Amino acid sequence: MAAMSGKIIEHVLVAKSCQQNRHLSTQYRQACCNLNRCNLSPFLGGNLARSRMSTIQLRAFSKLKRRIVFCNAAPPTAASSIEKSDFLKLQNGSDIRGVAVAGVEGEPVTLTEPITEAIAAAFASWLQDRKQPDAARRLRVSIGHDSRISAKTLQDAVSRGIGRAGLDVIQYGLASTPAMFSCTLTENEDFLCPVDGSIMITASHLPYNRNGFKFFTSAGGLGKADIKDILERAASVYKTFTDEDLRDLERKASQSIRRVEYMTIYTSNLVQAVRKAAGNIEKPLEGFHIVVDAGNGAGGFFALFLFKQGKVLEPLGAIASGSQFLEPDGMFPNHIPNPEDKAAMEAITKAVLDNKADLGIIFDTDVDRSAAVDSSGRELNRNRLIALMSAIVLEEHPGTTIVTDSVTSDGLTTFIEKKLGGKHRRFKRGYKNIIDEAIRLNSVGEESHLAIETSGHGALKENHWLDDGAYLMVKLLNKLASAKASGEGRGSKVLTGLVEGLEEPAFAAELRLKIDQTHADLKGGSFREYGEAVIHHLENITVTDPKLQKAPVNYEGIRVSGYDGWFLLRLSLHDPVLPLNIEASSQEDAVKLALVVLSAAREFPALDVSALNKFVQA
Ligand SMILES: O=P(O)(O)OC[C@H]1O[C@H](O)[C@H](O)[C@@H](O)[C@@H]1O
């Protein structure tokens, strides 16, 4: 990209930021509550609210939203009382997640500013152990965030942590998770890219009081082991938070925090990708009407020029009127930004039908997940989205392996293998798991170009295995544009046609059975061990039943076919929960399968089977 002026729009010395926080330690421990009643919505009025909100404003806004919200109002906590185990509890697979906003009963704040600062400093030290700084510059770390109400507070704390470790801080403001990986690969010194590491502040679709972090380097998102390492380091950093150390920090902090409009590059790359695929046509989507639902998360940029972020649809010639919930609002007042959520899918479907649009696109809060709706209101999410993406990718790479999560339908396997001529590897749940598996397959000589989950996470080999909901939608737009260019016609029929022949179950359900970790039946063991015992017991029951057949290839939990359907019982990636997925050709058959699971599950008193009981009685 040609050099552009005005990319680096703000220069603030870390030293200054540290000065403002010179009594950080004391404040953290004594007055967190008052200090941090702030930034209820960083985006109110269309601008990042830089000033702290008064209590009155806060109350008024809370009333407006019919909720009481206090930002980061953690009780005073001595540094020494936060243990390593408290840090380790913040691990959520390959992410860090916690409660960042007080006010929800039973959910105390776990992601306070000092804890955040320690985590950021720990990431910096992890990075320093792996990357030698260039002689000409210090290592640099970029920070982005979604629309959450605690975003700005945590961004400041992360910046202090990175600055504390002596690295350069580059703030992107509102950004998408994939953009935060992309910036580690972009070569553009005008935008201070590539960065050596990046941090996305997000908790995806979780409620407003949560937040968390995802970390990236040019090698991709950090994995579970790295996150554990960072949290262990953070616990040690936290112990060093003393007044004396803060004075020292003030002396050492001499580098700058800079602000860069990186989303301009990211969106421009998406636009270029569609133009290129359409044969370098400037406006390949001319005449298409596409509505976007960003669910008040960070995905508004796809439709609209928002908060200095570029847009995607309009430069390509599409009409985006009727797009909705593009304004970032961390209270998520319209629906949960989650393409797996029923209400969210109903909202975008209604927008498509009301506007007589050709296509609807919906994103989750941080835009690493997406789904679509065709012009007739047919949802293209979950198995259908996988089928659609598989059809597109298999046209480009015949015979390639599609890696998916474990809860995909039997009909999807038939579709990929029989209709499309590809190979389906139904692997484990978790976007990182499927991406790593696809990379591994390629490394052992099995070609794979797509890793995609029913959750709407998806990554392509051609896009550096970047887990990007916006790029998935770009692939659909490419298809629309090339169909138009070749005279195949307008509208989303070309997409709908690609999933023709996909067999779909008449009945599908997911029940999540909770394990009570305090129950005596755990006998001091972990919920994982307990969950494994349930699965093992269920396995013993199913092998003796001639009507049931255990899936010969399965990578997590137990998957069983029978009664014209199947079920999968597995351990959740993160929670003390056994998710149960059932698909069958009728509700009656689904109940028969559920009864098999119930016969095993009811022997485990720490397992809450009420959802299962309700299901079989319905
Ligand atoms: O195992 P579960 O509780 O169903 O959660 C599984 C999900 O966890 C996270 O949200 C990951 O981002 C997803 O990739 C994964 O599918």
What is the name of the CATH topology of the largest domain?
Alpha-D-Glucose-1,6-Bisphosphate, Chain A, domain 3
CATH architecture of the largest domain: 3-Layer(aba) Sandwich
The biggest beta sheet, please?
Answer: 9 strands, mixed
CATH-level-4 superfamily name of the largest domain: Alpha-D-Glucose-1,6-Bisphosphate, subunit A, domain 3
CATH hierarchy, class of the largest domain? Alpha Beta
Distance between the termini: 59 Å
How would you summarize what this structure contains?
The protein has 618 residues and is an alpha+beta fold. It has three domains: 8-260, 3-Layer(aba) Sandwich (Alpha-D-Glucose-1,6-Bisphosphate, Chain A, domain 3); 265-498, Alpha-D-Glucose-1,6-Bisphosphate, subunit A, domain 3 (Alpha-D-Glucose-1,6-Bisphosphate, Chain A, domain 3, 3-Layer(aba) Sandwich), CATH 3.40.120.10; 507-617, TATA-Binding Protein (2-Layer Sandwich). The chain has 19 helices and 25 strands.
Characteristics:
618 residues, alpha+beta, Alpha-D-Glucose-1,6-Bisphosphate, Chain A, domain 3, TATA-Binding Protein, 3 domains, nine-stranded mixed beta sheet, five-stranded mixed beta sheet, 25 strands, 37% helix, 18% strand, globular, disordered N terminus, binds 6-O-phosphono-alpha-D-glucopyranose
